[in-house]
Amino acid sequence: MKIGLEVHCQLLTKTKLFCGCENGFSSEPNTRVCEYCIGLPGSKPRVNRQAVEMALRIATALGCRIPKETFFSRKSYFYPDMGKNFQVTQYEMPLATDGKLAAAGKEIRIKRINVEEDPARIVHEGGSITTASHVLVDYNRSGAPLCEIVTEPDFSGPKEARLFLQELSTMLQYLNAFNPDMEGSMRVDANISLDQKDILEKQSFSGSQRSAASLQTPGLKGSERVEIKNISGFKDIEKALEYEVVRQRTSYSRKKEIVQETRSWDAAAGVTRSIRTKEGEEDYGYIFEGDIPKIRVDAAMLKSIRETMPEFARDKVRKYASMGIQEELAVSIASEPDLAEMFEKVIKTIDADFAARWFAGEIKKTLNFSNIRLKDTGIKESHITRMLQLVYDRRITERTAEMLFRDMVKKPEDPEEMMKKSDVSIIHDEEKLEDIIKHVLSENSKALLDYKSGRKESFNFLVGQVMRKTQGRGDPVAIRKLLEQMLK
Ligand SMILES: [Zn+2]
């Protein structure tokens, strides 16, 4: 199986690629537009230096070769999402070539990187592309800078494609070039072809013991390349490709030919649909964009880019591992730049191994559950540091800290202040704990008998019951010690 990806990422620049209109999300349609982005005759482009620099930083991070000179071309097509009837992109001379990114346990080769303008957003009112009553165009997105990253067909399965995109997304976030939370900020075209072995695999596991070789049908070749256009979301990439593998295998088993074509992914229905049989790139009639001078990439600029590369996830994992943090925890923290940044501040005062367990555990889990990023919560470094210090000093239980953090995500507050409002401090008082244990033992005579007849697991059950009675505030070490004494 061969899968290759063309990834389009919206670059986080202040303005659009060829005009001064503001770039970024806006809810009011057609408010960030000028003559150029709606394609009025006579309007001329001017290249956004920040966009080109950002793309060069991405190319450097991916270890690409960067030619000394590059230029833009016009890709002709007639569709309302491009007011000019052509898209300014790069074709003959990409910004960069021959890079690589380690993902899914292998090295994925990057074929080329281009900068191009995004088309406008088309809105199908009252239904899908076939059933809409009318179609609206929002030119706010028209001219937004995109970085196109094209891989070689190095993926041997849908899951690898997803892991690569997650890795790429993390890298782009470390470069401050990309915001994964913006809708449609990463759109992917995936091409896939199955060879004969992939196709026959399906037939051999459908019950028969015959070898794949004996199933070979004369004239049966591998499938033609099918392209799936415009998929958003990591999970959808994997699902779309999985669907396509099954579709192609099923077609083969019915002796239907797989034609070279372009398909779209319908995320709601979970199917791909044919849009058109594939046209060649030459059908777009690329011509040189004469309104934009050639861009010279000077050595000094590349040198300063190389010297200001941030620390990436892989560097951080190595660094955390050298502090004695488990690799699994290190990978989990480093995969989110804002989490990693906070973690590094917190471990200036808190034990790194202890903090790592919290960051990769409850903190990340709660943020994911609330579907929010740490940087968007308003939670300060001092909040987390104090919370972890309270747990570390055994002034509150882990369970209490978990509850505090959940409240903090909703409304950031100092944990000491939160403790004052409701008494959540840990119960160390042995007399008080003894009373509670006595009570629990009288209520759980069966567990008590079980324990005395040798069922040691009843001990943990009793500890759990005591913790419940203290609403999670009992000192677990003291409880175990007292219970042991009282059961003797
Ligand atoms: Zn504009």
Q: What does this protein structure show overall?
A:
It is a single chain. By secondary structure, the chain is α+β, with helices and mostly antiparallel strands. It has 3 domains: 2-193 and 279-295, no CATH class; 311-421, no CATH class; 430-487, Arc Repressor Mutant, subunit A (Orthogonal Bundle). The protein is built from 16 helices and 15 strands. The strands form 4 sheets. Strands 5-6-9-1-10-11-12-13 form an 8-stranded mixed sheet. Strands 4-3-14 form a 3-stranded antiparallel sheet, with no helix packed on it. Strands 2-15 form a two-stranded antiparallel ribbon. Strand 7 and strand 8 form a beta hairpin. Residues 16, 19, 21, 33-34, 36-37, 143 line the site of zinc ion.
How many helices? The count is 16
Hetero ligands: zinc ion
The total tally of domains equals 3
From the N-terminal CA to the C-terminal CA, the straight-line distance is 65 Å
Summarize the structure.
With 488 residues, the protein is an alpha+beta fold. It is built from 16 helices and 15 strands.
Topology:
Blueprint: E1 2-10, H1 49-61, E2 69-70, E3 73-76, E4 86-89, E5 96-103, E6 106-117, E7 121-125, E8 134-138, E9 145-151, H2 158-174, E10 186-193, H3 196-204, E11 226-232, H4 234-253, E12 261-266, E13 271-277, E14 287-288, E15 295-296, H5 299-307, H6 313-322, H7 327-334, H8 337-346, H9 352-370, H10 381-392, H11 398-410, H12 415-421, H13 430-443, H14 445-452, H15 457-469, H16 476-487
Parallel strand pairs: 11-12
Antiparallel strand pairs: 1-9, 1-10, 2-15, 3-4, 3-14, 5-6, 6-9, 7-8, 10-11, 12-13
Helix pairs in contact: 2-4, 3-4, 6-7, 7-9, 9-11, 10-11, 13-15, 13-16, 14-15, 15-16
Zinc ion binds at residues 16, 19, 21, 33-34, 36-37, 143.
